[in-house]
Amino acid sequence: MISLYLGERTWAHAVPAGWKLLALALVSLLVTPFDSLPLMGGLLAAVLALYVSLGRAALRQVVLLRPMIPLLVLLVGLHWWTGSLAAGIAMALRLLAMILLANAVTMTTRMDDMMDAVEPILRPLALFGLSPRAVALMVAMMLRFVPLLFALWEALNESWRARTGRRGGWRLLAPFCIQTLRLSHHTAEALAARGGAPKGPRR
Amino acid sequence: MKDRALVQIALYAAIFAVLGLMPKFDLPIAGGVPITAQSMGAMLAGVMLGAKRGALSILLVLFVVALGAPILAGGRGGLGVFFTPSAGFIFGWVAAAFVAGALMSLLRAHAVFASALIASVVGGIVVLYAFGIAGMALKTDLSLVDAAKACLIFIPGDTLKAVLTALVAQTVARGMPEALLSRAR
To answer: Are residues B21 and A105, on separate chains, in Cβ contact within 8 Å?
Structure first.
């Protein structure tokens, strides 16, 4: 699976995940009430400067914003129609800056560091009988299921093509669901046979 | 929580991710509106797992997205998606799955297809769009009505997804009734 994480280390990789999350939350709270055009332009410029300081690979990720352009154009257009174009552009600049800033945290933080950083937030889940270790297990299981499901879909598609010469498409959905449910039953049995999901409060 | 529920929550979260990574379904819809299969993942989780487990399954998806996995449609992911104009839809999926699941067990006396269709439409469209439109209005300073206009193009595709979800629920109810956890006693 492709990852948004940047392989090469930058200075931002060394900053603890908790601090980066805190900084992101603070900035998002601070910029929400403002909609002055120069301020938002400055924010976006600052975030882009951050990307430049992170290197070429980081700048390449700015391209990920491309699918959002039609929606942003539509939203700015609606603003223009109903009121002021300047407010619309300020809104678009703020959105772009915040999306890029949040993505910068994701780019420079490993998934397990992020998980460790949010573990304290998960602790209240123990009240509902769900230990943070069970959450970690579910995350791992989910990520493992994804390629497995793709393989299953491919197998169904191939056998459909062998019988009809066409692609299965939506017709595969029902058998796919039944097969995946069977898969999950086996997984649950295997998990139970190994002593079940972790119940302790800590790793 | 039982092991089986745990695995199924992870499974439907994975199905949600797969629906987003899939290129696209060959759905006969004109206009070329970008239709992601992903809100169908929320409908499926609710209809199949029931209210609580369905909502937990989508929460797991959001958690993994926040951790940085690019599993939303078009390879999006990471913390950035929570700041996009469509963030309301992303949080709305949790409510959508919950409402769809609750309706599914509420309508347990009725036929699977009909109740799954109602559950998907109310949860996956009415509730989801309430969240999505409110979120968009909040993020973009537009009025609710204007934000609603920007979202309406997705409704036809979502109706189709509700029908597909109901078809899947019916098939599973026939082929593997014990897997329809939303109706388990």
So the answer is: no
Encode chain A (203 residues) as per-residue pLDDT tens digits: 456 788 888 888 888 888 888 888 888 888 777 778 888 899 999 999 999 999 888 888 888 777 777 778 888 888 888 778 888 888 888 888 888 888 888 888 887 888 888 777 777 777 777 777 788 888 888 888 888 888 888 899 899 999 988 887 778 877 888 888 888 889 999 988 888 877 765 44
Q: Which two tokens stand for residue A78?
A: 């609606």
CATH among 1.10.260.40, 3.40.50.720, 1.10.1760.20, 3.90.640.10 for B3-183: 1.10.1760.20
Closest chain B residue by Cα to residue A197: B3
Three-state DSSP state, B76: strand
Complex ipTM = 0.84
Instruction: State the nearest Cα–Cα gap between B77 and chain A, in angstroms.
Output: 8
Token couple for B44: 């499926």
Residue B130 contacts A where some CB pair is shorter than 8 Å: no
Inter-chain touch A71–B69, beta carbons under 8 Å: no
Q: Which of A35, A142, A178 sits opposite B64 (nearest CB)?
A: A142
- Tell me which chain B residue has its CA closest to the CA of residue A187: B7
> How distant is the Cα of B96 from the closest Cα of chain A, in angstroms?
20
A81: tokens are: 């129609």
CA distances from B110 to A140, B90, B155, B158 (A): 37, 30, 26, 23
